[in-house]
Each structure stands twice: as structure tokens, then as C-alpha cells.
Amino acid sequence: MIDLKGFISDKFFKKRFLLVFERNMSLNESMLDHDEYALHILNDPTEFNEIDTSVLSKEGLLDKFKKRLNNPALTLFLATDKETHNIVGYFWIAEAVGAPFWYDKIYAESDTAIGINAFTFPEYRGKGIFPFLESNAIRYVCHHKGRKCFYGIVEASNESSLRSHKKIGFSIAGINYLTKFMGYNIISIINRSGVWEFHLVFRTHKGRSLDHII
């Protein structure tokens, strides 16, 4: 049976929420530490030398991740198993320093950051790894580096992710609509604080993926 809503979302029209965690908000301290997993914050490709990267090598990710870390705007947060030292999940962030930073057809203003790529390996899902990584990313961005806020993008249909973000402390900052033609993103419509913006993203820098901004 065809999933009509999923088909429309993939091919023609998608609704997403832009979520925000502001610098003056308090983090849930219980999410910043984990009994089973350790946190690693990487800003330079040489920092992989201190970590067992066999999982990333197996998945064909290690060289790509090292290349990304040559971009000073990107930071990688890794979670590793305290006993086996295996990497169990990762979370990438991008900081917008001098100008708005476009990613995934939406942007973060100057002096903010945005979560751009998160993954937990299947056998470790449901163990609080994503909240652990994202909470520490927020603390790093907002409390350690003093950025104004941290953004996340969540599809409106992804109720579990919305609940997870709200549990961390995110609030809705805006709504994003992607208009598509047979799966190709054409226009990104953004509503922030009641102000509508229309951005052409088809074959422009506003529509580039992470692999095009490194």
C-alpha cells in the first residue's frame, strides 16, 4: 500500500520545524553525562588519532569526516562505549560566524550554530545517545563559545524527534516549507516570527548539501 503522505512529502511538498535553544536557557544537567558512553569533541582531523575509528573506517566515513574537520566552521561530537571504546553515535554542528550559514535549504544567522548531521548506530538506539550528544553540543556552542542560540531542523511528521528536542529544551522558532518537483527542492519558504521569506534553492548555494560546503 502506498504511503500517500510520505510520497507527497518526498516528491512535492514538505513541512519542517526550525527549533531553537537560546543561550540564556538552562540545560537539563542529567543529559550532559552518561553512565555507559563517553563524549569526544573534535575540531581537527588529527584528533582521530586518540579514538578507535574502526567503525567509521568500516562504514567508509573516516576519510570524509577527516576532510570535514578541515572546515573551521564544523565540529564533530562523538559518543564511545566506555568499555569497548567503540563509536556508538555522532553529531555534527556548523557555526555561522561572519554570515548566515545555509544548510539543508534553511539558514542560521551570524553568531549562531545549527545541528547538521546526527546518527546513532542501530544496535545502540533507544539508549539516550542523541540527547547526550545534542545537549553537549548546545553547552559547547551557547555556554562555552557564547553563541546566541543553537538550531535544529525536524520534519513535522517526525513526532519522536520533536518530543526528543522538546525534552532537551528546544522551542519552535519557525516553520519551513519545501516546495518540490518530483523530489527536487525548488523553493524554501521560511516563516520566522510571522515574517515570510521565499528562497530559490534549486541549483543555488542555498540548496547545497553538507558535502558541498566543506
Our Rg estimate from Cα atoms comes to 17 Å
Give the low-pLDDT segments.
Answer: none
Total count of helical runs of at least 4 residues: 5
Shape summary: globular
Structural class by sheet pairing and helices:
alpha+beta
Strand content: 35-45%
Please report the total strand number as a whole number: 11
Q: Characterize the main sheet.
A: 9 strands, mixed
- The succession of helices and strands, N to C, reads HEEHHEEEEEHEHEEE
The helix content is 10-25%
The N- to C-terminal Cα distance equals 40 Å
Mean pLDDT across every amino acid position? 90
Strand order of the largest sheet: 2-3-4-7-8-1-9-10-11
What's the structural blueprint in terms of helices and strands?
Elements: H1 4-11, E1 13-22, E2 37-42, H2 54-58, H3 62-68, E3 74-81, E4 87-96, E5 101-103, E6 106-108, E7 112-120, H4 129-144, E8 149-155, H5 159-168, E9 171-181, E10 184-192, E11 195-200
Parallel strand pairs: 7-8
Antiparallel strand pairs: 1-8, 1-9, 2-3, 3-4, 4-7, 5-6, 9-10, 10-11
Note down, in words, how this protein is organized.
The protein has 214 residues and is α+β, with helices and mostly antiparallel strands. Helix content is 21%, strand content 38%. It contains five helices and eleven strands. The chain has helices at residues 4-11, 54-58, 62-68, 129-144, 159-168; strands spanning 13-22, 37-42, 74-81, 87-96, 101-103, 106-108, 112-120, 149-155, 171-181, 184-192, 195-200. The strands form two sheets. Strands 2-3-4-7-8-1-9-10-11 form a nine-stranded mixed β-sheet. The longest helix is centred in the middle third of the chain and has 16 residues, at 129-144. The model has no long low-confidence stretch (mean pLDDT 90).
